[in-house]
């Protein structure tokens, strides 16, 4: 990743005199604690609220700002004639604020409707994937962890974007392909297996279609890939094979009636057995305040499968044109048997999201 960072910085620097360079940013200063919880005694895990699975943002009984606080910068250089280069650097409290390039890609506008991109980007599995780190962009403290739970969230590859309309419907689409090789996957290495784990998703092929009309927005997504995994250098085996194929399906449906809104997302990952997740949320805008409720659920197939759900209530206060204060209470029920994740918990978190 250091080489990619150096090349991107060199490209942006070398074009600074010949292109328009834009810098924007976002930050979240969040804190919280577990009010009560069971933990997972058989694994030696104390009471824990796992707020973000991929980067292991875990709150404990002591108040902390580290799990979810972050700051990000996005740098883009417009080279003219439809060509641009973009990089995004994020420093996370969960990673000791070590800054890393998470996005680095080149875009070319073929015409007013079609764009082709290549490089490292966010894997667009979910509705909030493209702006997942920008807390200001959504109403809750975070996108629900039960839904946004997979190990891989970026990929390297190529994608084609379309933006247009059909009658009164706005339409956008994205077709993408690529792979991701995470040498030491944080979720698997630090939390689930607690041993160095390399996670590979290859032969990724996916598509997204999003439709919008007045108060209604619909998003459909599908992706397929091949999964390989190495624990302590040894290949994981599934039914005698060192790889397995996965298929992901997703539907998001949002309705906004002005003050009142409903948000929902339903996903399925087929890995030989189905893993189903959903999220349903509703809120009401009262001037600068937006109280909301949310429920989410993760359920695998089988009696011993991973199963957990979350109920949340909170409020967002837009006290500034570029900043919002949020406070949220979460109650997690972990009904997993042999695959308990973090146990039951009740947690309180609060924070400020800003864009600049």
Automatic annotation (TrEMBL):
The keyword Cell membrane is assigned to this record: no
InterPro entries: Gram_neg_porin_domain (IPR033900), Porin_dom_sf (IPR023614)
Coiled coil (UniProt feature): none
Signal peptide: 1-19
SUPFAM superfamilies hit by this protein: Porins
Domain (Porin): residue spans on this chain: 8-352
Keywords: Signal
Name of this chain's protein: Porin domain-containing protein
Classification of source organism: Bacteria, Pseudomonadati, Pseudomonadota, Gammaproteobacteria, Alteromonadales
């Amino acid at each position: 990743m250091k080489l990619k960072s150096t090349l991107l910085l060199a490209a942006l620097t070398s074009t600074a005199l010949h292109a328009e360079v834009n810098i924007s940013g976002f930050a979240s200063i969040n804190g919280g604690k577990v009010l009560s919880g069971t933990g997972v005694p058989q694994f030696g895990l104390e009471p824990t609220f796992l707020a973000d699975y991929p980067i292991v943002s875990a709150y404990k009984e002591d108040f902390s700002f580290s799990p979810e606080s972050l700051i990000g910068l996005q740098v883009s250089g417009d080279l003219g004639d439809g060509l641009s280069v973009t990089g995004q650097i994020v420093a996370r409290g969960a990673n000791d604020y070590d800054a890393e390039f998470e996005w680095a890609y080149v875009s070319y506008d073929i015409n007013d409707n079609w764009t082709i991109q290549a490089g490292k980007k966010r894997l667009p599995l979910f509705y909030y994937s493209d702006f997942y780190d920008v807390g200001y962009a959504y109403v809750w403290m975070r996108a629900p962890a039960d839904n946004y739970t997979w190990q891989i969230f970026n990929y390297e590859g190529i994608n084609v974007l379309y933006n247009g309309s059909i009658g009164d419907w706005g339409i956008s689409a994205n077709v993408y392909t690529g792979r991701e090789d995470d040498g030491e996957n944080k979720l698997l290495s630090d939390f689930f297996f607690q041993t160095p784990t390399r996670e590979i998703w290859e032969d990724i092929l996916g598509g997204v279609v999003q439709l919008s009309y007045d108060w209604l927005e619909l998003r459909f997504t599908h992706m397929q890939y091949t999964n390989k995994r190495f624990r302590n250098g040894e290949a994981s085996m599934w039914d005698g094979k060192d790889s397995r194929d996965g298929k992901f399906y997703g539907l998001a449906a949002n309705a906004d009636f002005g003050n009142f809104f409903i948000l929902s997302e339903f996903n399925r990952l087929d890995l030989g057995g189905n893993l189903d997740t959903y999220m349903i949320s509703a809120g009401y805008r009262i001037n600068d305040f937006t109280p909301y409720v949310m429920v989410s659920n993760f359920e695998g197939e089988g009696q011993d499968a991973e199963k957990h759900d979350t109920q949340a209530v909170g409020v967002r206060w837009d006290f500034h044109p570029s900043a919002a204060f949020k406070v949220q209470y979460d109650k997690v029920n972990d009904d997993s048997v042999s695959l308990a994740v973090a146990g039951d918990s009740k947690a309180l978190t609060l924070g400020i999201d800003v864009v600049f």
